Amino acid sequence: MNITLSQLDDGLKRILISFLIALTMGVITGLVYLNYTTNYSSSGAIERFKGNESETLSEEFDIPETYAKNISEMLITTHNHVIGFSLIFLPLTIIFFFNSVITGVLKNILIVEPFFSTVISFGSLWLVRFVSSDFIYLTIISAVLIYSSYFIMAGVSLYELIFTKSGKQNNKSNSLD
To answer: Model confidence over 155-176: pLDDT tens digits?
Structure first.
């Protein structure tokens, strides 16, 4: 199959552009929420899952702002995020597959990387919660890889859909060889 994004019908291009913009707004909203809940800090992320054990309560009935997530909360967080991220990346990687800007090994890496990093990110949160806070660095690295992959794939796909004319094509653009 030698179809590239730039060769698509203008109507289909508009649909994909609209989808990628809406999806990106959702991803950015998630990043804003992550900043709001963790301040993009390792200590904020650790506190989000392990709670604030050092918080002193002034009265017997005070409820701490942050508390350690129990197994049920960890399961639902993992479940929702692994399924959600997989469903985000499935259409994105299919769209990106047809790009002609990035090819070869880098294209292959970008296509599979976010699926692996999603499992590593949310698996490592279990390690942070129940084994050692030091695993937060594994979570951070895998999250950076997830979001970097997302923005590269979405950006390249949007670039080709908007700016690349159909005459510019690479016959091996969507090959996984």
So the answer is: 999 999 999 987 644 445 555 5
Could you read off the pLDDT of 95-142 as tens digits, one per residue? 999 999 999 999 999 999 999 999 999 999 999 999 999 999 999 999
pTM of the model: 0.86
8 A C-beta contact, residue 93 and residue 111: yes
Phi-psi sector, 125: left (phi>0), alpha (psi -120 to 50), beta: alpha
Instruction: Compute the distance between CA of residue 90 and CA of residue 141 in angstroms, rounded to an integer.
Output: 21
> Tokens representing 12?
């289909």
By CB atoms closer than 10 A (0-12, 13-18, 19+), residue 100 is buried
State how far the Cα of 108 lies from the Cα of 175, in Å rounded to an integer.
9
* CB-based contacts of 136-141 (< 8 A; 24+ apart in sequence): 136/42, 136/45, 136/46, 137/42, 139/45, 140/42, 140/45
Q: Which residues, at least 6 apart from 28, have a Cβ–Cβ distance to it below 8 Å? A: none
SS3 of the chain: helix, strand, coil, percent, to 5: 70, 0, 30
Half-sphere exposure of 24 (CA within 13 A, CB side): 17
In this prediction, residue 171 carries a pLDDT of 46
